[in-house]
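Subject: Sanity check before I submit

Could someone independently write out the structure tokens for this chain? I want to compare against mine line by line before I put it in a report. The sequence has 676 residues.
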Amino acid sequence: MKRNIKKFRVLFMSILLLAYGCNKFLEVESLTKVSSDVLLSSDKGINMLLANLYNALPIEDFNYRPADGFNLRGWGTTGLGVTFRLCMQADEAMASSGIGVGLGTYSYFAASGSGSSAGNQGGYIANRNISIFLKSIAQAKNTNVITGDQYNRLWSEAHFCRAYVYYALAKRYGGVPLISRLQDDDYSAGDTTALYVPRSTESDTWKFVLAECDSAVQYLPTPEKFGSSDGNPKYRATKWAAYALKSRAALHAASLAKFGGRASFSGTAVTQKLVGIDPSEAAFFYKACLDASAEIINNSSHALYKPNPANPQEAAKNYQDIFEKNVSNEIIFAKAYLDGSVVGNFQGHDWDNYYAPAQVPTGFNKMGRFSPVLDLVDIYEDYSDNGTGRSAPIVTRTDGKENDFINTNQPTSAQIAAIPFVKYSNPYEPFKNKDARLLGSIIVPGAAFRGVTIVMQGGLITKDGQLLIYQSANSPGLDGNTYFTYGPSTGYSGFSGINSQDDANYSATGFSVRKYLSEEKAVSGKEESSTTPWIDFRLAEVYLNYAEAAVESGTGDQALAAKLINDLRKRAGHKDIIPLTADNVQKERRVELAFEGQRIWDLVRRREFHTLFNGSYYRKSLVQLLDLREPTPKYVFLRINEFHEIQQGARTFQVNSYYFGIPGTSVNRLINNPGY
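---
Independent answer below. Compare away.
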């Protein structure tokens, strides 16, 4: 047993025959410095082991970098990647420097990327540590260090962690080797044959995830059963967290079964069913999603936060508070942080430092680097509430041609003259009647943040009709006053330095993020000083999972599914009732879960990524211009393909990118995925 404990943080011997390192920025107290006797002699020691399992969970949070891995703090060796987020790799947002489409390149099979750490373990390193933990708590129970009830709970927590690890593996690789025990006794006198476990089918891998969730559910307590020494139930696995993970994983697998035919693969991995799930299995996985979701909906005490707002303005504030204040019973499972500028060891995150608008910086040298795209903004409804759930694109033209976009970074004055702009008296006017979730998630032009009106202007139309865009300039108006391209001469948040990665401290799309930013709480501006928790599972997602599983399968309680999506809309201030349709559910997912890491996986599991990013699609910007052709200058809005997209050309998502390549196949003898 002593040997097993020490192996928690030393070289990993398994089917991968790979090793991992430690990141000084994310160092939990080294278990090699504590004897196994001490660790297994008290609850505190065992909790140290458990903390390491939680620390290594592959949660796609504030510190997840798609190209580098999980739980990373500090700048590491790549630097630039630290400001990129998963939601910037799809059609929700962009980094203000403009790079990124796809799932990233991080190999979760084993630790890689900059600054590997215990928290950045590969999946099989984390899985081995779970097996060691299970063996360790069995010994602790046998020596009466813990009771049977304590053992049962720890056993279920370990299976929750294993379910999460294999969920992260399955959605990246498809079928993978399923290892649920220590392999130490399989190695003998240099003979490693027994260590080479082949890949299971993708279907069996997803079923393994669901079975691990069932084991987690078996003994995990509900939040009401947490004692004073158990910690905060938001940050430690509960019965409902396990069901929420099962709901999410089952929906992913069901979608692969139903929509897998939208993308074609070939090769040995396909013929051996290591990738792909037969359409006949969709019903099984949809039912698993419905059942897991219903357990939470019908039996838990979780509830939507403030579900009956008096008006849309109150709804927007309520929605923002879910993410900023972390007080909602809607939260099922979250990840907490400490202020790294106070406790040291980089225990926080930098969401506020990197993404606060340039007009209200925290004092850090990077800011404003999160640019939501117009593609998302246009999806939100207004409050006409006509019972259809139809989106309401921002009105910019009098002819209604809101699908017309400029596709050059240097539009001509003739192009501008041909556009029948709607002219606004203030920049906030086009957004004032939009869905509360837009205003709670995104800082739009003219909105207030921390008491400051955020300016997102990108240019001028001079009094003689010339366009000045993406440049620092000024021009007189018909009223004799001088006006500047970015709004005032100082104090603006959009488009400046748009062609410089070093100076990409301004929105590149005309919008900034609001969700998760600290508006009421001061942030020091030092690295890792943000402490806002990351919400991993919340009830709203469970509602949407149930609704999607019901409408796509035609099973479940259809009336309940319709009620669930309308309850979310009611919480957002809507008064109408919309029908349960597949399109309505997907639209509600986009607006309710924006920037929460779900959209990119929705595109993957529904096999829509390659048809969206198909070489002709550009992510969009809305450039606010001040029109000086009017006696009193007016605001107009130019629909234009985003600057960096035009520079680099429309992106294409390759079909083979739905799966990551298996690393080290010449050593681990695994069949690789198509295209690798």
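---
OP: Matches mine. For the report I'm noting this point. The longest helix spans residues 148-173.
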